Fold this protein.
Amino acid sequence: MDWIISDELGLTVGHLVGWGAATAMIVGGVAPYIPQYRQIRKTQDAEGFSLYVCLTLLIANTLRILFWFGKRYEIPLLIQSIVMNATMFAMIHLCVTVKKKNQIIRSRDRIFTGAIFMLYILLCCVNGSAQPDDTAQWLGQRSGIVGVEKPHRFYDMDRKYFWAWTDFQSYLDCMLVFSVFGAAITYLLIEFAPFVELIGFLAVFTEAMLGAPQIAKNLANKSTEGMSLSMVIMWTCGDLFKTAYFVIREAPTQFWVCGGLQVLLDIVILVQVWLYRHNTAAARRVRRGD
């Protein structure tokens, strides 16, 4: 039997525990990125942190928000997704700013040009008299890119520069395109239950793969220098709590299954910290000039 705290308000210990758990879910998802944010600001070095972590979370939480319209789950999880997206944009803004400051030789700006070249395709289709080369050249100048001689894919000028742009606005534009496209498809298929379930699965599976970009980054560097160990430890603790929360609160199956996968990837990163400890120590000595 639950302990009654206030009979008039109908407040019980169970209510307080539930509110506390909900608050922990919202704040706990953001907390691991605080030490990483502070480390990047302190060292003015963002090379050790993979921006694909931010991409993974932005996609996952945007899909989770869309999933809520098709299959309502607890409000704290919805709020967590909104807060997490804002946090990821803050991380991206910091990394882009730091990388620009650290440029020794000014390189050519790389921007997300999806909207520009989608317009190019429309113009070529609608205006038969328009010369493709002239139109592409004009659109390239409008986007700040010169020397465009042929049509480009809608998502970016060069695939290898995707999610490696040099201005913050490009990341906002990219996610805006993704969100609008996802919302339109969801609106059309909202009554189709398998599609709604697919969105839910993709949301939690994408989030479960959060550690994969950081694992790849560490593997390529053979070091974990620039990555906050506190962030990874907090990831692990948070994911354990989150997975338990999903099971206890009987969240959709996709949530707790992929939560377990996320914990597994966290452990892999912790193993990398131990395996690359000597390389990481050497990199830190070089950075300090020892």
About this structure: The radius of gyration is 23 Å. The longest strand covers residues 4-6. The chain has a mean pLDDT of 78.
